[in-house]
Design goal:
about 10% strand; elongated
Length: about 130
């Protein structure tokens, strides 16, 4: 699943943003926060039978790629089929588990986007 965000503003802002050095660090912090929150939530929401799925969730931030990427992935092959199965877990957790983790991020995104904007603005005022 891929989530893409694009930012557009007036011409003056777009001209300023051509100097990407002022945007790189705040954007890196923003993506790191996103991956951390989604990883924490997906672990919490993952069903626990043996605990293997919950234990294998990992995340990675690649700030040197163009575009920057943040990934969250499971280390077991049955994660995606289980996500879409409709199966009812016997232990803790719920199914689906990845979609609710992303939805959690999206419900709270405004506060994170505001912080990103504030961080970028601070860098331009320096």
């Amino acid at each position: 699943m891929r989530i893409t965000a694009r930012f557009k503003g007036d011409k003056e802002l777009e001209k300023k943003l051509k100097d990407k050095s002022n945007v790189k660090k705040p954007l890196e912090t923003f993506l790191d926060l996103a991956r951390t929150i989604v990883t924490r939530q997906v672990k919490e929401y993952s069903p626990v039978d043996t605990g293997t799925l919950r234990a294998t969730w990992t995340s990675n931030l690649n700030a040197n790629s163009k575009p920057m990427t943040a990934t969250v992935s499971a280390g077991v092959v049955y994660a995606l089929p289980l996500e879409t199965s409709g199966y009812s877990p016997r232990g803790d957790g719920r199914i689906p588990f990845l979609r609710p983790a992303i939805d959690y991020w999206l419900r709270n995104k405004d506060q994170y986007f505001k912080k990103l904007g504030d961080d970028i603005e601070k860098r331009y005022k320096k």
